Amino acid sequence: MTTKNALEPTSEQIRDFLDSHEDGAPIYMLNLLKFKKTSTYKDGEQVSGAEAYARYAKAFGAMLRDLGLDGVETVFGGKVDRFLIGAGAEEWDAVAIVRYPDKKSMFDAVSNETYRSFHFHRKAGLEGQLLIACDSSGVF
């Protein structure tokens, strides 16, 4: 099994995401995050990758509040401790699950001018991530 750690979705992944999930249905985004040891800001500022990403997360939360995007919530966020089954815990630093009311809300949240104004913190801090879209159909 192979996974690919990346920073941005491909055009094909965006199209597939928008085409695949039922309109109006809640969607959960599972984030597996790998931080850079040291940020890579264009102005040369150096903080940890985790601190740069925390700046992004704080700005993202403020944007959601300011835009009044109801129903968006961080369900869980925490540091990766260890794997109980499988291997590769060292590949990830943190995990987050964010719930959106629907795929359009998720896409709108990351496709506006305000988001673009602080997105550079994400790029400065992240080595890469997996972003996994999950529906709310329930498996069990």
What does this structure look like?
InterPro entries: Dimeric_a/b-barrel. It comes from Algimonas ampicilliniresistens. This is DUF1330 domain-containing protein. The radius of gyration is 15 Å and the shape is globular. The protein is of the alpha+beta class and 140 residues long. The longest helix has 19 residues. It has a single domain, classed as Alpha-Beta Plaits, CATH 3.30.70.100.
Keywords:
Dimeric_a/b-barrel, alpha+beta, Alpha-Beta Plaits, 35% helix, 24% strand, 4 strands, DUF1330 domain-containing protein, 140 residues
Q: What is the third-level CATH name, the topology?
A: Alpha-Beta Plaits
Could you give the distance between the termini? 24 Å
Low-confidence stretches: none
Number of strands: 4
Helix proportion range:
25-40%
The H/E string reads: HEHEEHHE
CATH architecture: 2-Layer Sandwich
**How many domains comprise the coordinates?**
1
Question: Would you spell out the secondary-structure blueprint of this structure?
Answer:
Elements: H1 11-20, E1 27-35, H2 49-67, E2 73-79, E3 94-100, H3 103-109, H4 113-125, E4 126-135
Antiparallel strand pairs: 1-3, 1-4, 2-3
Helix pairs in contact: 2-4
Write a brief structural summary.
This is DUF1330 domain-containing protein. This protein has 140 residues and is an alpha+beta fold.
